[in-house]
Design a protein that fits this description.
This protein is an alpha+beta fold and 470 residues long. The protein has twelve helices and 13 strands. Strands 1, 2, 3, 4, 5 and 6 form a six-stranded mixed β-sheet that branches. A five-stranded mixed β-sheet has the order 8-10-11-13-12. Helix 1 packs antiparallel against helix 8, helix 9 runs parallel beside helix 12 and helix 11 runs antiparallel to helix 12. The chain is rod-shaped, with a radius of gyration of 46 Å. 25% of the residues are buried.
């Protein structure tokens, strides 16, 4: 679990766990050490508390290169180096003599009251050293004293106070660098803690959203199952009601007189309306559950359009709406389920007639078009897609039209532009939802355009050939 950012800051400021290598840049530390070496010519090494070498600015003296060629002297020199590395001064620096008469100076690097590293200066010659120590020449009988006398003066020479001052200034410089690094570390750690906290909150919200989504998905499934079950159970008795009303109308049970025939006609008409509603619910349930199968093959658009127009002509004549049909020459066949495309066009045309006033015009047209890549496709794959040839089926009316802000919502199930109880036109709001799902089931697309000066234009694009993937 990610802890709150405020608590993380408190832990960072009170923590003793930070290391010198976390607070300084190794490259910058090396440049600083090199500048001190160039200024004072005293070799310098900086170690972390864990014995990690962080910076080194030195050149091995020629005398020490010579000593490393002498077996016994080399061992003694290595023992000195090991002892220097093991020194752990608390506050004041510690001097340590070398077999050559030179010295090392080891000082603690402290920050915020605790040691976090060490600096080792040397080897350097004390200002008072003028002769080679007898203890050194006695180490190995093979030592060339003359060569040692020539090489010894080439080493850096410094007074004890000078070395202490070098260590003091170096410590102060390091303190500034460590403070700056510590501040940067705190800022970075605080930022990371804030990011982790934000991520945790975002993850919690995502988990809640996922739970809500799963719940809504389950409710949607239950709703679809309920609609399918209820619609199926209603369809059987409703078919009987419609059948018996037709028989009564035909006089099988005796002649109807006066208002009897009017009442039976009303029963029959309302039964047919209810049956269409139930069919719509069943279709919507099948589309949502993915159980509706499309029997697609190459189909010509013209016969389907003419059949739809013939079906809705009586309704258009009754409402005094003019029907027009427009076909483009050279139409290709579309890859579609003819019955479902007929259902799409029938729904759009009936809607157009319903919302077009007397004296208006509804135009059903078919022409060649193209399915271009959808800009809303995710992942940028739209750039790799090419347009596909398609049949463009359109239904244009001169009715009341659809406001631009409503066009993206009219395809939602049960949504109606005018949902008030006083609306002039009836309907359940299922038709356009079914249209959209059927069109998308054909790998097609449907959109709404304005028809100037009034009305709406529904455009359906159906591919002319089966989709292939390579």
């Amino acid at each position: 679990m990610v802890e709150p950012a405020s608590r993380t800051l408190e832990q960072l400021t009170l923590s003793d766990d930070f290391k010198i290598e976390e607070l300084v840049d190794k490259h910058a530390l090396g440049e600083m050490a090199q500048s001190f070496y160039e200024l004072f010519r005293v070799p310098l090494r900086i170690y972390s508390q864990s014995e990690r070498l962080l910076a080194e600015a030195s050149e091995q003296p020629e005398l020490y290169r010579y000593i490393n060629t002498l077996p016994e002297a080399k061992v003694a020199l290595q023992a000195v180096v090991a002892a220097v590395k093991n020194l752990r001064p608390e506050r004041d620096g510690v001097r340590y003599p070398c077999i050559t008469g030179a010295e090392y100076y080891v000082a603690s690097i402290r920050y915020d009251g605790r040691a976090i590293g060490r600096m080792i200066l040397g080897p350097y010659l004390p200002a008072s050293l003028r002769e080679i120590p007898r203890s050194f020449t006695d180490l190995d009988p093979t030592i060339d004293v003359k060569q040692v006398r020539e090489l010894l003066p080439k080493m850096a020479r410094a007074k004890e106070d000078t070395v202490k001052q070098i260590a003091l200034h170096l410590g102060r410089t390091l303190d500034l660098i460590l403070f700056s690094g510590h501040r940067a570390l705190l800022a970075s750690s605080m930022h990371m803690a804030s990011v982790r906290e934000s991520f945790r909150e975002l993850q919690d919200k995502n988990d809640k959203l996922q739970q809500a989504y799963d719940r809504l998905k389950e409710l949607d499934r239950l709703k679809s199952n309920f609609l399918a079950t209820v619609s199926h159970e209603l369809r059987t008795p409703l078919t009987s009601i419609i059948g018996y009303s037709e028989m009564l109308n035909e006089g099988i049970a005796g002649p109807l007189v006066g208002e009897q025939k009017e009442f039976v006609d009303t029963i029959h008409n309302k039964g047919e309306q209810l049956l269409e509603l139930i069919k719509g619910l069943l279709d919507l349930s099948k589309l949502e559950s993915g159980t509706m199968s499309l029997r697609r093959k190459n189909e010509a658009a013209e016969p389907i359009v003419r059949d739809v127009v013939a079906t809705v002509t009586p309704a258009a004549l009754k409402k005094d709406v003019e029907l027009k049909v427009v076909f483009e020459a050279g139409l290709l066949e579309m890859w579609a389920d003819a019955e479902r495309i007929r259902q799409v066009l029938l729904n759009l045309t009936e809607n157009a007639i319903k919302f077009t006033p007397a004296g208006g015009v509804v135009t059903v047209a078919a022409r060649m078009g193209a399915l271009t890549p959808d800009p809303s496709d995710e992942g940028g794959l739209v750039l790799l897609n090419t347009s596909r040839a398609a049949i463009e089926l359109s239904v244009t009316d001169t009715g009341i039209g659809i406001a631009e802000e409503e066009r993206s919502r009219v395809f939602d199930a049960f949504y109606q532009v005018d949902s008030s109880s006083t609306r002039e036109q009836g309907g359940t709001g299922l038709g356009l939802s079914i249209v959209k799902r059927l069109v998308e089931g054909h790998d097609g697309r449907v959109r709404i355009e304005a028809n100037q000066p009034t009305g709406a234009r529904f455009v359906v694009l159906i591919p002319v050939r089966r989709a292939t993937f390579t």
